[in-house]
Amino acid sequence: MYNSKIAGLGYYVPEKVVTNDDLSKLMDTTDEWIQERTGIQERRHVEKKGGDTTTSMGVKAAKIAIDRAGIDKNEIDFIVFATLSPDYYFPGPGVLVQRDLGIKTVGALDVRNQCSGFVYAISVADQYIKSGMYNNVLVIGSEVHSKGLDMTTRGRNVSVIFGDGAGAAVLSREIDTSKGILSTHLHSEGQHAEELALLAPGMGGRWVNDIVSENDPEDTSYFPIMNGQFVFKNAVVRFSEVIMEGLGTNNLQPTDIDLLVPHQANLRISQFIQKKFGLGDDKVFNNIMKYGNTTAASIPIALTEAWEGGKVKEGDVVVLAAFGSGFTWGSVIIRW
Asked: Whole-prediction pTM value?
């Protein structure tokens, strides 16, 4: 029997900082309006031409994580890449990372679970290691949202929320089963799929050439849509449920949590969960103020920053939790 442990962490965000005031020049919004609803002050965007890509950011984060894990890149046995914004419709970015890192011909798996993507990816990697199949698995979450957002007043409810960035973790075998990843918990509820979605291409069999040929300026099917209030109400319930599920599985209580790293969807959601579980400010890590919602990248970026800041210590109980499009949600319980 083995556990897996997070042996190395890394993250990368583009240099370009986009403030709320910057967005107010593109759409009818204000810094106050955005902060009141989301807690976000700024986010990072890639340069539109010749800038970072989902893959290149993932590679940069991965190099840091591999170095911190103290292993050679060719000791990576498998790659799991979580994203909703791949460079190509196909193939996915997992194989591109394998190529760009110059890693031997290991398997590469792409995970399409949006905001829950990193939690799902961690769960997959964890099971591969626990089964004895692999020793070291590279897990990446990376997103380029900025090129696919409606940066007008029409799209402001969604576009002000999202940012670009990447985070990575190396999971390695841990012989001491009292340490490392203790359990993971995954759920979905597809009946609400269209409440947070990008409908095209693919909507009802409608493909890219259909959209191009129609050339309809009023067609918004290729921009993300979100029923914000409905998503919020479901998120706070599912976050609570899946955290308690993970704690209960390991005979832990909310008072045992040393650090909660939630998916950075909305600061108000994080604050709601913090209050419900009675956690102090030092027990919850948020960085949505600086980066916005980076979807699959948000947890690894936040976890890396928390670790770099000395907020994660050996023996700590660390909880990761996410909720997002699908709906999908999940949690990871770690004894560091």
From this structure: 0.94
